[in-house]
């Protein structure tokens, strides 16, 4: 059955599946690591026990999410050698060094200080423990720095030459490779999305416990109230910033990858006198048109060119073989934008409730916050799909096609490993996610229990003193032989 499938398509699906699963965890832990560092700093500065309780509450969840992010990320690196060996051979001289630096600097920084962050509060002193929390937070950001630099280079390659004999991309200017034209915009947009993701998960958990306490006619703890309040402040500040950064990123994409923007906007045709902003439509790649289109005249030109009548080129100027799949890009982009404005709406709603003194009593706001808790995860996946599918049909934009990057594997081999990944991922990471949700379902309490380590007793089998050797033998049954 698998032999009838296309090996390239299966390899793309496999990488998309594994990277989507993996991306959910860093999108959460990047923001959560910074949140933990802030909580620890507030505890040291104010000695208010609610901050310590929140730190102990969320650090358990961080440890699990971080572990699942590491494990799910290892799989992707192997796929570069199995499914995408041609891409690795061609682009390896350029992207190999930044990916190695990510492990040697960022990941080692995270992993090296993680143990102190989790278990070292009573062992190394408050100053070093705070430094460890800050190092883990910086390490998560630094890891995103290197990975997004590599990814951005694949979208806007710079600082290289191509060997005419081997076809390999050779680095010529390291700084141009790292700081390629789209990297600053993608880095800021992605990291800000991670902070928003964490804010809405934390806010959703706080709102859930506020609703439960109200239903039971009980007073919510100071830690629960603080959790929700801090998350809503983050939404108010970061959501409008994210929309602004997204606009800058879109303008950069228009400059360097115009076909992607055409697909995002659903512009099959060119518009010499101002392009509409389509809010809805069904992309029809075969007929090269947007069916059932509903849009606002000239608004796309105003947003992208800052002029109502600015001309906008369409996909009719791009060869069919170079066009991305419009339907996926078109709808993923709209999901991302819709969720971004919904986040802004929740932030403004919370600001209004705070001004009225009803931040912790507005049940409508709390229900909306619970509903929006996974919105950040959905938005980052939608944004990632927009970015990566919009780059197609290239792995290195304009220079190396996806069909020319795949390893010479048969479809059954790729399909079998894809099925194995799906089964194992849903079993292993599904169980881990279920346990995280169980932890979130319990509210933070006063004097929140800390993580326990091996100082509470040995948990190893090796190294335990054996029982003393018996000096006498049990008598043998005379009916049995020696």
From TrEMBL:
It is a multi-pass membrane protein. Residues 451-482 are annotated as: Disordered. It is found in: Cell inner membrane; Cell membrane. Residues 471-482 have a biased composition (Basic and acidic residues). Keywords: Cell membrane, Electron transport, Heme, Iron, Membrane, Metal-binding, Transmembrane, Transmembrane helix, Transport. It comes from the Bacteria. The chain crosses the membrane at residues 20-45, 57-80, 100-120, 127-148, 187-211, 223-245, 328-352, 364-386, 406-437. Belongs to the cytochrome ubiquinol oxidase subunit 1 family. This is Cytochrome ubiquinol oxidase subunit I. It comes from Pseudohoeflea coraliihabitans.
């Amino acid at each position: 059955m698998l032999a009838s499938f296309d090996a390239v398509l299966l390899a793309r699906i496999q990488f998309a599946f594994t990277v989507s699963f993996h991306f959910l965890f860093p999108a959460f832990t990047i923001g959560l690591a910074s949140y933990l560092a802030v909580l620890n700093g507030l505890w040291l500065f104010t000695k208010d026990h609610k901050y310590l309780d929140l730190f102990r509450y969320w650090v358990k969840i961080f440890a699990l999410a971080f572990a699942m992010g590491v494990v799910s990320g290892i799989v992707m690196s192997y796929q570069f050698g199995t499914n995408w060996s041609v891409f690795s051979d061609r682009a390896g001289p350029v992207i190999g060094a930044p990916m190695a630096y990510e492990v040697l600097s960022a990941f080692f920084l995270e992993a090296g200080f993680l143990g102190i962050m989790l278990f070292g509060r009573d062992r190394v002193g408050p100053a070093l423990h705070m430094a460890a929390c800050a190092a883990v937070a910086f390490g998560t950001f630094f890891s995103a720095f290197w990975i997004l630099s590599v990814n951005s280079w694949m979208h806007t390659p710079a600082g290289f030459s191509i060997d005419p004999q081997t076809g390999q991309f050779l680095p010529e200017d390291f700084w141009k490779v790292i700081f390629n034209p789209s990297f600053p915009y993608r880095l800021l947009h992605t990291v800000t999305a991670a902070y928003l993701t964490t804010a809405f998960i934390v806010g959703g958990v706080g709102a859930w416990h506020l609703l439960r306490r109200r239903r039971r006619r009980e007073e919510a703890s100071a830690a629960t109230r603080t959790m929700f309040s801090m998350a809503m402040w983050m939404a108010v500040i970061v959501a409008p910033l994210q929309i602004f950064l997204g606009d800058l990123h879109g303008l950069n994409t228009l400059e360097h990858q115009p076909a992607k923007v055409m697909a995002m906007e659903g512009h099959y045709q060119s518009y010499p006198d101002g392009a509409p902003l389509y809010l809805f439509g069904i992309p029809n790649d075969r007929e090269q048109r947007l069916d059932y289109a509903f849009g606002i005249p000239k608004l796309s030109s105003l947003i992208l060119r800052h002029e109502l009548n600015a001309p906008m080129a369409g996909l009719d100027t791009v060869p069919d073989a170079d066009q991305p799949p419009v339907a996926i890009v078109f709808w993923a982009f709209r999901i991302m934008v819709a969720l971004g404005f919904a986040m802004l709406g929740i932030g403004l709603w919370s600001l209004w409730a705070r001004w009225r003194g009803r931040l912790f009593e507005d049940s409508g706001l709390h229900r909306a916050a619970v509903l929006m808790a996974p919105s950040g995860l959905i938005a980052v996946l939608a944004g990632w799909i927009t970015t990566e599918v919009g780059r197609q049909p290239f792995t290195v934009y304009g220079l190396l096609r996806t069909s020319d990057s795949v390893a010479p594997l048969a479809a059954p081999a790729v399909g079998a490993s894809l099925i194995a990944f799906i089964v194992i991922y849903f079993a292993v990471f599904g169980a881990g996610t279920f346990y995280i949700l169980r932890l979130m379902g319990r509210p933070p309490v006063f004097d929140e229990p800390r993580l326990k380590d091996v100082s509470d007793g040995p948990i190893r089998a090796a190294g335990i003193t054996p029982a003393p050797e018996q000096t006498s033998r049990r008598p043998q049954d005379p009916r049995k032989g020696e």
